[in-house]
Amino acid sequence: MDMLVNTRHFGEIDLDENKIIYFENGILGFEEYKKYTLLFDQEDEERPDISWLQSLDEVTLAIPVVSPFLVKPDFNPVVEDELLRSLGELSEDNIVVLVSVTVPADIESISANLKAPFIINSDSRKGAQIIIDNPEYEVKYNFYNQLAAHKAAKEGK
Question: CA 24 to CA 57: how far, in whole Å?
């Protein structure tokens, strides 16, 4: 079944209910909002591979997210199973890991929050934001160089 949803960046969209991701505990700072969807921004060449975690409860809440493996290819934090139990059975095929991105006016200062990734089970469509207890993963991890290298590789330069 489809529903019409207002969004901050994409206006009103027709959303398939199968695309709703339920965060039982909300996300940091927005614990009261539980329903989200992922929207992809294909228009913006400056910021490849960034998608938006859009709240369905609060139109203005849209968080830019990216795969942590694009930012830090060896991203592999240890996570307590207990924290992910509510998501259902996770496997390589259904786990989606995303981290929020801060895109300042100066693109060279772009950073990702590797400390608090979003873990989503694409089968159960349940998500959780977890805090990684490891100083190696920073809240503001600058990845402009990786982004530039990735873009150059994509363009075959």
Answer: 13
How far is residue 96's CA from residue 98's CA, in Å, rounded to a whole number? Answer: 7
Helix (H, G, I), strand (E, B) or coil at 35: strand
**3-state class of 34 per DSSP?**
coil
Domain count, the chain: 1
Give the amino acid at 107. Answer: I
Residue 70, classified by CB atoms within 10 Å of its CB into exposed (0-12), middle (13-18) or buried (19+), is: middle
Distance CA 44, CA 147 (A): 14
Residues in CB range of 148: below 8 A, 6 or more apart: none
Residue 100 near residue 116 (C-beta atoms within 8 A): yes
Structural domain including 116 reads 2-154
Summarised one tens digit per residue, pLDDT across range 68-125 is: 998 999 999 988 888 899 999 999 999 999 999 998 889 899 999 999 999 999 999 9
CA distance to 38, 58, 76, 130, per residue, from 79 (Å): 23, 29, 9, 8
Q: Are strands 11-16 and 21-23 parallel, antiparallel or unpaired?
A: unpaired
* CATH number reported for the structural domain that contains residue 95 in this entry: 2.30.290.10
